[in-house]
Amino acid sequence: MKFTKLSTLLASAALAVSGTVALAADYTLTISSWAPPTHGINAKMWPKFVEMVEEATDGKVTAELKLGIAPPPAQMDLIQDGAADASIIFHGYQPGRFVTTKLIELPGYEGSAEAASVAYWRAYEKYFKEANEHRGVKLIALHTHGPAQLHSSASVTDLGQISGLKVRIPGGVGGDVGTALGATGIQVPAPKVYETLASKAADGVVMPFESRKGFKLTEVAQNVYEMPGGLYRGSFAFIMNEDTFADLPADLQAALDEKVFGEPLSREIGKIWDEIDAIGREATEGADGNAINSASDADLEAFGTIAADVREKVIAEVTDAGVDAQAAYDMIKSEMAAN
Predict the structure, then answer these.
(1) CA gap 286, 299 in Å, rounded
(2) Residues 6 or more apart in contact with residue 36 via CB below 8 angstroms
(3) Residues 117 and 144 sit within 8 Å (Cβ to Cβ)
(4) Nearest Cα residue to 66 out of 110, 98, 102, 30
(5) pLDDT at position 338
(6) CA distances from 97 to 52, 162, 189, 204 (A)
(7) 326: pLDDT strictly greater than 60
(8) DSSP secondary structure letters along 45-88
(9) pLDDT digit string (tens) for 188-202?
(10) Each residue of 10-31: b (16+ CB within 10 Å) or e?
(11) What does the pLDDT read at residue 95?
């Protein structure tokens, strides 16, 4: 995709996320995002991306954000086709297309989203890159959200109560865990969770604490069942159109690859997710009628068995994809423990 020149940019109605004056920029990236305007992805992550890009390129490259261009599952194709320059994708929305990404989603990892995101990128560089699952786009960051918990309208205080509930669960490991718990899975993109719960089409959703505020779950799912370490972690990627990157001068490409893309951006995005998870927890604690119910020791033990079965299944899947899955899993666990 060719860059839009300044005259066109001035006529655009896009929502700018840059904190600096775009007049000085030689190149402006168009970002496609599917989350609500106030969600941490748009309120914090993309602005951090723009800040890092502008700093690395001395203001020669900036970006602007456009919302609602396409639904979440279409973002990969959108960027590959050049309809926008950069986007965020959730791997679980495209079952079968991504396999190695499931390894970071496994329950049982201990550590922050920042630690998980850094470990994820390092494992990608060493093990996952060869699977070439992001072919057709330039992968510029990998990250996870925080531990996912069950958010429901009715109180859930026991792991066994999840069986039979209609629960919005994403694809990937989240789907594997939901099946193992006996939930009836309902797959809708994250922006649809509020109306899905409000209409009683689902009894609950499994998402990180951030969603308490980002998707207003304090209003429609007043109860949280919290499993230490989470039921799973979701896998995301920031991606870029390959032609857009190739159209940049070589010195700007080098600056972005060295100072922004890869581990630096992955770390910053993970750090932001830790921040917005904390904000979501605070919103829950301050909301009338909301409650957080912690899993019992018996539930922890029961879920440990379920998590081990899911882990064995996923490691086998990733191994079949031609990756040393056990070594990658061990690396992620070790990297997270060290951070």
Answers:
(1) 27
(2) 42, 191, 214, 215
(3) yes
(4) 30
(5) 87
(6) 30, 28, 17, 26
(7) yes
(8) IHHHHHHHHHHHTTTSEEEEEEE-SS-GGGHHHHHHHTSSSEEE
(9) 888 899 999 999 999
(10) eeeeeebbbeeebeebebbbbb
(11) 82
Distance CA 272, CA 175 (A): 25
Residue 36 token pair: 């609500």
Band of residue 23 on the pLDDT scale cut at 50, 70, 90 = low
Distance, in Å, from the CA atom of 19 to the CA atom of 29, rounded to the nearest integer, reads 14
- Looking at domain 6-93+107-144+235-276, its CATH superfamily turns out to be Bacterial extracellular solute-binding protein, family 7 (3.40.190.170)
What local confidence, expressed as pLDDT, does residue 245 receive? 98
The pLDDT value recorded for residue 41 is 96
Single-letter amino acid code for the residue at 72? P
Length of the chain (residues): 339
Tokens of 7: 């005259």
**What's the CA gap between 257 and 85, in Å, rounded?**
16
Rounded CA separation 21/44 (Å): 18
Kindly state the percentage of the chain with pLDDT values over 90.
87
Residue in the structure block whose two tokens are 């970006």: 63
pLDDT averaged over every residue in the chain: 92
pTM: 0.91
The answer to whether residue 7 scores a pLDDT higher than 80 is no
CB 192 within 8 A of CB 213: no
**Phi, psi dihedral angles at 184 (to 5 degrees):** -90, 110
Kindly give the pairing relationship between strand 235-240 and strand 184-186: unpaired
